[in-house]
């Protein structure tokens, strides 16, 4: 059933919010970065040749038995704790039956009525610093399905009438985090949606349990949206936009679905409960398949796996391993560094918080760390068309460069060159300075000679300086730099000039 042909036009966002109150719910799937799969010893690896990381358990061959990956369970417990959930004392896996070629077993091993973690919350920080609490219904363990490529449909092979299947992903450990319905978001619903998924991504990254790369599908979000008539208090019918895999897309999908539902409801229509697909190019969604709450997956407890029993000691050991929550860490660093909100946001956007933290921890001032990472490194990254973090510059390198400057051994300009040589593989900054003979000329002999030469060649400048126009010294620095191949210390040059003219600096 394709609704889009007959659907009324979406309302504007403002019109929609005047009349309706949005309700949202998110199912976020997190792919864990364990070495092996959830129930088999096949490697959990991204990007390998199709169907090379598959074994008999993943394929559900007769006579095989699954074994639970203990690391995946520990990751689930850690995530549950980080989401302020209760951890079940015992829980079970269940079979979710469906017939589709992405699962060779004809069921997905998941958890149903006994999730490992439940009843939590996450406080998410909005753009203006306000905190919005999202209640977590549960976080449960399951396995990923294989990847289908519809050869003809995706245009990869013109006219093809078949699909390609890659089972490398089948059995990869997943945690699905499900929120309770989120009410009271109002016009901030799209922003809250993005902030929530961002917060979840940051947490799984900080926990180190997932590569958390959304563009690779390590973190994927199903966004459920419905509207209720203001003051009505009864939830409307939801749509479920599947597998939205960027933060912006989550925001836009919620925005669009609110407008689309409002358009239908305002025209007297009713919402079909269905899954929908996000379309990045038009920033709209399209109809997927109808889905009722009574969808019968014929769940039943997985007979081939024992229940998981967690004891308090185990949970407390894992709790002790939790890192500082990302939101708290951000607040702490913003304060410690004394950056403005804008400066700090820029650091986050550039993905350089870890690097700056380490640079400061190694003894550079926050201002120096910022100058390097947000200035020079970002500029070079831009010129080389990569993300700043992807340049792979170590904080230790920046600390070393800064030390060379502070000791007066190189100036800023040379330091910038040294960075380029370093990126081109010439080694550590001090080695580059030594190899290339870049040390600042501050031994008085060579520098004084260069200054004398510049003064002799620019009598008009010297006259101005002598008359008290100290700024004019700047015109001498150029020629001195030229003479010393850029290795003069500008402060020293000034000092020598003033000295020669008998002026107090
Ligand atoms: N009326 C509603 N409007 C918006 N969100 C809703 C509404 N009712 C439920 N939700 C949210 O939708 C999500 C439903 O996810 P859940 O995993 O429980 O079930 P499902 O989508 O039916 O199943 P599946 O995991 O197979 O997709 C939850 O986040 C829930 O809070
Ligand atoms: Mg769902
Ligand atoms: Mg779900």
UniProtKB/TrEMBL annotation:
It catalyses: L-aspartyl-tRNA(Asn) + L-glutamine + ATP + H2O = L-asparaginyl-tRNA(Asn) + L-glutamate + ADP + phosphate + 2 H(+); L-glutamyl-tRNA(Gln) + L-glutamine + ATP + H2O = L-glutaminyl-tRNA(Gln) + L-glutamate + ADP + phosphate + H(+). Residues 277-296 are annotated as: Disordered. Pfam families: GatB_N, GatB_Yqey. Gene3D superfamilies: 1.10.10.410. It is an enzyme of class 6 (ligase). Its EC number is 6.3.5.-. NCBIfam families: gatB, PRK05477.1-2, PRK05477.1-3, PRK05477.1-4. HAMAP family: GatB. This is Aspartyl/glutamyl-tRNA(Asn/Gln) amidotransferase subunit B. The gene is gatB.
């Amino acid at each position: 059933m394709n609704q889009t042909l007959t659907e009324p036009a979406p309302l504007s966002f403002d019109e929609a919010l005047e009349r309706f109150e949005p309700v949202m719910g998110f199912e976020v799937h997190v792919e864990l970065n364990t070495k092996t799969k959830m129930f088999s010893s096949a490697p959990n690896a991204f990007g390998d040749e199709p169907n090379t990381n598959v074994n008999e358990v993943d394929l559900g061959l007769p006579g095989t038995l699954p074994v639970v990956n203990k690391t995946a369970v520990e990751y689930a417990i850690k995530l549950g704790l980080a989401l302020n959930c209760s951890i079940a004392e015992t829980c079970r896996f269940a079979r979710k039956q469906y017939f589709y070629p992405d699962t060779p077993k004809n069921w997905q091993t998941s958890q149903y009525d006994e999730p490992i973690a439940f009843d939590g919350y996450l406080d998410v920080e909005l753009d203006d610093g306000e905190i919005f609490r999202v209640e977590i219904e549960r976080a449960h363990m399951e396995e990923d399905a294989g990847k289908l490529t519809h050869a003809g449909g995706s245009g990869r092979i013109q006219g093809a009438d078949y699909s390609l299947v890659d089972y490398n992903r089948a059995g990869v450990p997943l945690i699905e985090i499900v929120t309770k319905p989120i009410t009271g978001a109002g016009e901030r619903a799209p922003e809250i949606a993005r902030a929530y998924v961002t917060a979840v991504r940051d947490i799984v990254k900080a926990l180190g349990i997932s590569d958390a790369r959304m563009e690779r599908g390590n973190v994927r979000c199903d966004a459920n949206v419905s509207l209720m008539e203001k003051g009505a208090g009864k939830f409307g019918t939801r749509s479920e936009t599947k597998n939205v895999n960027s933060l912006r897309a989550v925001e836009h999908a919620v925005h669009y679905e609110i407008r689309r539902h409002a358009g239908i409801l305002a025209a007297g229509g009713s919402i079909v409960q269905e899954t929908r697909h996000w379309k990045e190019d038009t920033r709209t969604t399209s109809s997927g398949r109808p889905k009722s709450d009574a969808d019968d997956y014929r769940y039943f407890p997985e007979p081939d796996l024992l229940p998981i029993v967690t004891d308090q000691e185990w949970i407390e050991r894992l709790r002790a391993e939790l890192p500082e929550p990302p939101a708290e860490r951000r607040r702490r660093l913003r304060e410690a560094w004394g950056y403005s909100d804008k400066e700090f946001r820029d650091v986050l956007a550039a993905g350089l918080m870890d690097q700056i933290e380490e640079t400061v921890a190694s003894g550079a001032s926050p201002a120096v760390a910022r100058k390097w990472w947000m200035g020079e490194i970002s500029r070079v990254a831009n010129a080389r068309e990569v993300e700043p973090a992807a340049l792979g510059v170590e904080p230790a390198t920046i600390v070393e460069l800064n030390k060379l400057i502070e000791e007066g051994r190189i100036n800023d300009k040379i330091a910038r060159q040294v960075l380029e040589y370093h990126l081109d593989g010439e080694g550590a900054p001090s080695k580059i300075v030594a190899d290339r003979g870049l040390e600042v000329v501050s031994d008085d002999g060579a520098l004084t000679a260069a200054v004398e030469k510049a003064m002799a060649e620019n009598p008009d400048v010297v006259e101005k300086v002598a008359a008290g126009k100290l700024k004019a010294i700047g015109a001498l620095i150029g020629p001195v730099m030229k003479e010393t191949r850029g290795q003069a210390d500008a402060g020293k040059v000034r000092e020598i000039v003033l000295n020669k003219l008998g002026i107090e600096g």
